[in-house]
Structure formats: C-alpha cells, structure tokens
C-alpha cells in the first residue's frame, strides 16, 4: 500500500472514532425507510411461512415485523428494500 493511501486510511479511522465519540459530525447520513413488510410479502403472493423461508427468518420474526411489534434492522431492512424494488434479484440469487 502506498504511503498516501495508508495515510488516508489512518485519517479516516481517526475521523470515524471522533464521529463515534460525538466530537465530529458525519459528512452524510444514509436513511433507509421502514419497509412495509406485509405489503412486500403480498406482492410476492406468499404466505407468511413461504416468505419467511425465502428470507431465511422465522415466521415469528416476520409476524412481529408485520404487526409492528418489532422493526427489521440492518441487513434485514436492506434485504426487504431489495425484495420490494427488485423481486427478481431475490429469486435469481437463490437459484
């Protein structure tokens, strides 16, 4: 790794630490909207059992999301966004 790139990496790590400690504001925020899980599942015309199997989650988790007792977090939220916008991507990735 070249010195210039290494120094940029070190500076980025320092800035990330400052952001985490609240000493610096992040330069940008990424906000992923809350998915309407039931609507996405209905687009697929699947039962809760089928859709939860497709996503690799328990039926209980899916029910909690659909009924608003819990919200999808992190990767699950992103996967649901993909499932909503690009349904073929989900099926193609599993075949």
Compact overview of the structure:
Helix content is 65%, strand content 0%.
Element order: H for helix, E for strand: HHHHHH
Distance between the termini: 38 Å
Number of distinct beta strands: 0
Count of the separate structural domains: 2
Specify the CATH class of the largest domain. Answer: Mainly Alpha
Structure write-up:
The chain has two domains: 1-29; 37-94, lambda repressor-like DNA-binding domains (434 Repressor (Amino-terminal Domain), Orthogonal Bundle). It has six helices and no strands. The protein has helices at residues 3-20, 37-44, 48-55, 59-66, 74-85, 87-94. Helix 5 crosses helix 6 (87-94).
What distinguishing features does this structure have?
elongated, 6 helices, 434 Repressor (Amino-terminal Domain), 95 residues, mainly alpha
């Amino acid at each position: 790794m070249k010195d210039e790139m290494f120094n940029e990496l070190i500076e980025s790590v320092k800035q990330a630490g400052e952001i985490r400690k609240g000493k610096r504001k992040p330069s940008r925020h990424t906000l992923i909207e809350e998915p309407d899980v039931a609507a996405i599942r209905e687009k697929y015309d699947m039962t809760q059992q089928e859709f939860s199997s497709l996503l690799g989650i328990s039926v209980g988790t899916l029910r909690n999301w659909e009924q608003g007792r819990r919200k999808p977090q992190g990767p699950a939220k992103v996967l649901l966004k993909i499932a909503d916008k690009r349904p073929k991507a989900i099926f193609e990735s599993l075949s």
